[in-house]
Design a protein that fits this description.
It is a single chain. The chain is of the alpha+beta class. The chain folds into two domains: about 160 residues, Beta-Lactamase (2-Layer Sandwich), CATH 3.30.450; about 90 residues. The longest helix has about 30 residues.
């Protein structure tokens, strides 16, 4: 898939989109990137607004950025927004410690966006559908105490899960959508693992829950065969039946998941 967030089906037939499809590759890429960002911003808006409301501070700015740290949308403090738009949002490696621990000082260097957040501020960022997806984060102009950041970090990860879930669930491309979890009652909620495959079983998109449950599965190299002991043809067969009842999905370590699969389109 050339882009992590392809052109929505509702935009097809639009003259601007048709012109982009007929253009040379460099022009087509630039136009499609703009449309992708519009979809990302639109689908992220409810979770961002809810996150800002839950953080409940006049000094906090919630930010959505591209994978390089360029700000796409900001909600909250005008000072924080101005800082973010002028300096960018640092990628997660520079903004939080391993395993979701409290972040280092926000003056830590940002490898892909130049200047990081000023020393007087703190920030956390988490990825959305890495590596080519986006970043969701916030900047606190008041440099909140570290004990509060654990709670804020949990809220941030929940918002990122909701956004990933929405992006994958509404993705117009793909062949088969697989939902799974250790607990069957999680299926159908934003906490479920989701993987979108093409017709060959290659992974197109996978949310953070899926990446965590299947670690260290090499998504990009082996697709379904690298992650699951259940054969790809069997997964497709379950999807074709359209059953509401979950089936048992086996991973390569001998573990089992409750799973549901659905076909998004038929091969020709």
């Amino acid at each position: 898939m050339s882009s992590i967030l392809p052109t929505p089906a509702s935009d097809r037939g639009n003259p601007a989109v048709l012109a982009a499809e007929d253009a040379s590759p460099p022009v087509r890429h630039a136009v499609n990137m703009a449309l992708d960002r519009e979809r990302l911003v639109a689908l992220s808006a409810p979770a961002m607004e809810d996150l800002h409301r839950q953080l409940d501070s006049p000094t906090i700015t919630v930010l959505l950025a591209d994978s390089a740290g360029g700000v796409l949308r900001a909600i909250g403090s005008s000072d924080g927004e101005a800082t973010a738009r002028s300096r960018g949002l640092a990628p997660p490696a520079a903004m939080k410690g391993p395993g979701g621990d409290a972040p280092p000082p926000a003056s830590a260097p940002a490898p892909t966006c130049g200047t990081a957040v000023p020393p007087s501020q703190l920030g956390i960022a988490v990825p959305i559908l890495p590596p080519a997806g986006a970043l969701l984060g916030f900047i606190d102009a008041d440099a909140a105490p570290l004990e509060w950041l654990g709670h804020a970090n949990a809220l941030l990860h929940t918002a990122a899960c909701i956004i990933e879930h929405r992006l994958i669930e509404t993705e117009p491309q793909g062949f088969l959508l697989l939902r799974f979890h250790r607990y069957a009652n999680v299926l159908g909620t934003p906490l479920e693992a989701m993987v979108l495959f093409d017709a060959d079983g290659t992974v197109m998109l996978a949310n953070q829950t899926a990446r965590t449950l299947l670690a260290p599965c090499a998504f990009n190299r082996g697709g379904a065969a690298a992650c699951f002991a259940t054969q790809w043809c069997g997964i497709v067969g379950y999807a074709a039946l359209g059953l509401r009842q979950p089936f048992v999905l086996r991973d390569r370590r001998g573990g089992g998941f409750s799973a549901q699969a659905s076909l998004l389109r038929q091969t020709t």
